[in-house]
Amino acid sequence: MANIIYGMFNVARTALITQQKAIDVTANNIANVNTEGYSRQRVTLEQNEPVYYEGGTLGTGVQANRVIQRIYDRFVNQQLAESESDLGRWDAQLETLEKAELMFDETSGYGLNDALSEFWNSWQELSNNPDGYTERATLIADTQNLTDVFNHLSADLTQVQSDSDASIAEAVEEINTLASEIADLNLKIAEVEAGGLHSANDFRDQRELKLQELSALIDVDSFEDADGYLTITTANGNTLVDRTNSWELTTHTVDGFEDVYWVSGTGTEENITEAIDNGKLKGWIEARDTIIPGYLEDLDDLAAGIISAVNGLHAAGTDLTGTTGTASGLNFFTGADASDIEINTNIADDPNLIAAASTSEAIPGGSENAVAIAELQNDMLMGGGTATFDDFYNSLASNVGNDVYQAEVNSDHQTTVNQQLATYQQEVSGVSLDEEMVDLIQFQSAYEAAAKLVTTVDEMLEKLINMV
């Protein structure tokens, strides 16, 4: 009889311990309901080993599996990491292109379109009064405004490139930090899970979150080995994390900008810039090396076309002193592209040097050359003879707007995909307060029942002792 009573004591004791553990895990879930990256945990309840006696078997209560289960979906987490990489690319590209778009804003009245219009109008006004000082001074002022807009637009676009370049260097440092932290978490997970008796759920959640942050910066491949170590490589196969070791990326200046290099264990370096296909690094690299240079090239072509066309006519004209361009060799513009286009300082200092007349006119105050230069606005001199200067610039501004629109569409689409995956991940791994409260009530009731069992068995034992 005493053995049975002591057996009941043991059943009550293990029940108390087990339900207490279940309550603790439930409380931890509730506490982390708003913790980013947290995967809810669950205690697996198992029957104790039964005892055998001549009448059959007798159950000995309940126990909790030592390994606390982490509820997550490996496939969804992998998809989410890939989605983070796609989203990072388009967000970085959109961020850069929106800066560039601001440079082409015409709503303020100080854009290149307005500056070109004022420049051509000034030549037209000069043709109406070719020896007028006011008209000549106005042309010089409008020309200086035009060259300033070209110079600033070129400098601003170059600064956008530099900003992307700085972002690339910062991202490389962040990648190195994340790789090192993941390697440290690999070690912690391996230490906790050695022997298979415990689970490093919290460390695994942290590692998963770090992997997503890393994926947002650069496209990577990852897999977990049988020992629980996460191995991470770049898309072209260079190792970033292997067990408890991490490898670094670095940057070096090539043609004025930072290229990304992978550093091997022996210190040798490999340029992987062109092998980066996704993540924020890809977005910044693509904008810096392809998209923004395309804008600058078109802007330089426009400035060079205006310089060549205006100088060609102006050098053949006659100024108010009666000197022809062929004699003076005086160009209206100096410079070669948008970055350095300027009005000739001699003309800026002396408006009389503007060659408004043609050499065929008998008087220095003629206007044929001014008319010819004003008419350049309507000539098909750009795009291989298919566009005017204004058309060419409007096409450039339109291309910038289209690029921003495409980046925004891709960013919005990928944001939606990311949110859907994150929602599904939360459905699998997230904490539901309603579910946890139901579990808490169940475990609490079971705990109270086990405590009541202890009281009952104690009373039985007391009576048994009294009988003896």
Automatic annotation (TrEMBL):
It comes from the Bacteria. Residues 9-38 form the Flagellar basal body rod protein N-terminal domain. InterPro entries: Flag_bb_rod_N, Flagellar_basal_body_rod_CS, Flg_bb/hook_C_dom, FlgK, FlgK_helical. Keywords: Bacterial flagellum, Cell projection, Cilium, Coiled coil, Flagellum, Secreted. GO terms for molecular function: structural molecule activity. It is found in: Bacterial flagellum; Secreted. Residues 427-467 form the Flagellar basal-body/hook protein C-terminal domain. Residues 168-195 form a coiled coil. Its main location: other. Residues 98-326 form the Flagellar hook-associated protein FlgK helical domain. GO terms for cellular component: bacterial-type flagellum hook; extracellular region. One of its GO terms (biological process) is bacterial-type flagellum assembly. Belongs to the flagella basal body rod proteins family. NCBIfam families: flgK_ends. This is Flagellar hook-associated protein 1. It comes from Desulfosarcina widdelii.
